[in-house]
């Protein structure tokens, strides 16, 4: 595993949109099981506003969060949007109840997701629309057909994928350009290493979900030691490692807490040495 010594804190999404690599994920600003409204909606709005005030210009949400309610919350908190703020959303999941996630790649459902997201986010163009999952029951060519139409109509600027392997990315790329991949990846779970390397080679953004996980108990001692040397928390070290792992990684840690939000954002100030990075990577 290799890394550059100097960590860049911005990334050009699609070669056009300059993103601060420390972003924010809105999933936690919902009810239990990512269903229903946030328990404290006023606090949720304050967290979003504080994130943007502190330099976050990339916020990740989805039609499925709530469902629908997270997108509306973001608009209520942040509209009219600060120039340069990029809001990424996703579509392709049915949500019959808390904790229930059923892929739905039917074209009519995807088209409905896109139109609904435009209205709830109060935008004419979605900066980044991501397919939440490939539906095993629907050919991806059919799933992405309304996405192609939305791009041509100017309703979607860029398209990404979520929880995909390299073959699936290549399959989608035959249909339309792909600028980002959002997969489970963190210091303790690197099952998608090949996908990350593929995105690096293609200059696509890689957006790890669940980025705060710091790994198994066997890693605790060295993480604690490195955290202590930086006067940082374990979570901050986990985020700093991701920032150093590859310059195309965009981080979207989510939280309901203003204090944790500020703590997460300060992870961008931690400059791990090459030796510390390699030690954590083993």
Automatic annotation (TrEMBL):
<dbReference type="InterPro" id="IPR050791">
    <property type="entry name" value="Aldo-Keto_reductase"/>
</dbReference>
<dbReference type="Pfam" id="PF00248">
    <property type="entry name" value="Aldo_ket_red"/>
</dbReference>
<dbReference type="GO" id="GO:0016491">
    <property type="term" value="F:oxidoreductase activity"/>
</dbReference>
<dbReference type="InterPro" id="IPR020471">
    <property type="entry name" value="AKR"/>
</dbReference>
<keyword id="KW-0560">Oxidoreductase</keyword>
<dbReference type="GO" id="GO:0005737">
    <property type="term" value="C:cytoplasm"/>
</dbReference>
<dbReference type="InterPro" id="IPR023210">
    <property type="entry name" value="NADP_OxRdtase_dom"/>
</dbReference>
<feature type="domain" description="NADP-dependent oxidoreductase">
    <location>
        <begin position="21"/>
        <end position="280"/>
    </location>
</feature>
<dbReference type="InterPro" id="IPR036812">
    <property type="entry name" value="NAD(P)_OxRdtase_dom_sf"/>
</dbReference>
<protein>
    <submittedName>
        <fullName>Oxidoreductase</fullName>
    </submittedName>
</protein>
